[in-house]
Amino acid sequence: MDNIPDKESQPSGQGFLETGTDGLRRFLKGRFSLDEDKASREEVVSVITKGVEFRGVNLWVLIFATLTASLGLNVNSAAVIIGAMLISPIMGPIMGVGFSLGVNDFELLKKSLRNLTLMFVVAIVTSTLYFALTPLSANGSELLARTTPTTYDVLIAFVGGLAGIVAQTRTDRTSTVIPGVAIATALIPPLCTAGSGLASGNLNHFLGAFYLFFINSVFIALATYLGVRFLKYEKKVFIDKVRERNVKRLMMIITLVTFIPSVFVGFRMVRISIFEAMADKYVAKVFNNESFRGTRVIDYKKIYGHGDLPSKIELVLVGEPLEEAQIESVKAQMSYFGLENCELAVSQDNRSEKIDVLSLQESYTDLLAEKNRRISEMTTQLKRYRMTNVEVEDFSREVGMVIPGVRRISLMKGLTFDMKGNPLDTTVVCVVVPETSQTPIDREVMMNWLRVRTKVKNVKLFVERQAAPVQNTPKSESEKKEAK
Asked: What's the predicted TM-score (pTM) here?
């Protein structure tokens, strides 16, 4: 009886659940903890400060990285652009801004902003000079891709900034995280694109590229700030409390002025991306069904509204014109795709003006493709039946030098087939007529020469020996009389 455990001492179902939850919590905390190899605050400040400074080697490396990225954009080479992002030291001042805001280090913040401005000016001047002097065209796809920021650029910059601050706060910094972040966030190519815009006088390219660089920089700094606060690094303490209060206020103002507008910009870009995705889905689903078989969408624009202007989708249709009832029907379907407040503008022409032109273009394209195919087949057949690149006249001249005693020569090139009609090999047939029926022809030398000259191994040689001509001798007087 003593061995029977007391019911009150037995673990209940709730106790087991709490024990399992604590174990899972400890497991996850041990796996995802960042405290194991966390570097000290002083060590991280030293590393960040070193990366912030732009003088000597860092400044020259920035110039070379800018030139490399400009060359990559100029020749439209993604590999060269990636190399430039790897060697670029541009991440230092940006992470310095976020880190200094996180630890309340006003001196580091001033140094970071000062060097960030210097870095921006040097990169812009270098890229502008390059694109002003280069004779190559500067309108490649790699360059144009850096003129319009998207939601994905914001997300990449933010996530990359988180990865960067985690890597910088480790005691072992030999990992490939920082180079990977430099490639993913793509900071140097937008600066080079901005320089290209200045060199060509294209203000839209300059503003778009600068906007992309600004967005990337702000969200990297924001991610760094949040990472520092998550890692709970101690803030800098001032002896003078009045100065500390003033510095905190100033840094709070800088933080709000820098980050809050960027957050609104980021949300706007997300809304634009969602609107464009819904518009694409709407056009694909509504205008590609059986009801509009005779009508085709050849182009459409998605215009996101701002202010009092609503969003708008502009369609260009060809083929059978839609009636007003059909247009109203497709407008009514916009609400099913989340486009309730979006306008639809339809531009369409008659079938005879558009579809016939498209049909003719398609017909001419098909005819041209068929003609090119036939030409290719005939060229291939001609190559198969041609003797060689040397003319027959050259053969006749050469054979007299190689094989003496030849009066005439005939050359023919053909194919050898099996009984099923399948081609087996190329054959050269040569017919040689000697000077006289007694003239010797060296067949082995002749066949070897033909193999070399015609580049065909299968050679058939025929020597045609003509009979000696009958000589008509004059008859005597007695033979003439007998003949009479």
From this structure: 0.54
